[in-house]
Please model this.
Amino acid sequence: ARVVTLTRAGAVGAVGATYHTPAAAHPDYPAVEVLNQVLAEDGTGRLYEALVKSKKAAQVFGVSFNWKDPGVLVALAQVDPDKIEDVRQTLIETLENLGKKPITAEEVERAKRQLLVEREKTLANSQQFAVGLSNWAGAGDWRLFFLHRDRLEKVTAADVNRAAEKYLLSSNRTVGVFQPTKAPA
Model:
């Protein structure tokens, strides 16, 4: 595991964890995208529950990138500078201990529904659709836009838990910390 700390003038701290994931064309990528949605969804995600509802962090974000080359899943939290270490520990525990409380079929279905609705909205807007096709072309082939949708529909809780077990490992992690200071050094 790697840790990078940035200390600069500021008022709000941040903690993030980045995990290497497969390329967008890889059969595991849809499960990784659903995993990200389950973890980072505002109001219902596992990270939201562990960090925002518990008042350890002000906000959480998550993203998985659909790149041609292997990508990353990133989880970030905005945090009071005094709570950085506690948030870092909670963030890592939440991400890497999913085996103790596996992702449920209900969580997977909710995440898939949200992702598929977003895809439908993209299809309804010609500009967003063109950008989406372009992004998937950049990931290797414009037809991945449609293949990914088909794969996404088939993702199960077992797929998501297998992806979490495979990719959310300490040996596959880089933690980034922004430690704000009162004045520039």
Notes: The first helix runs from residue 29 to 40. Strands lie at 2-9, 13-21, 59-64, 71-79, 173-181. The mean pLDDT is 95.
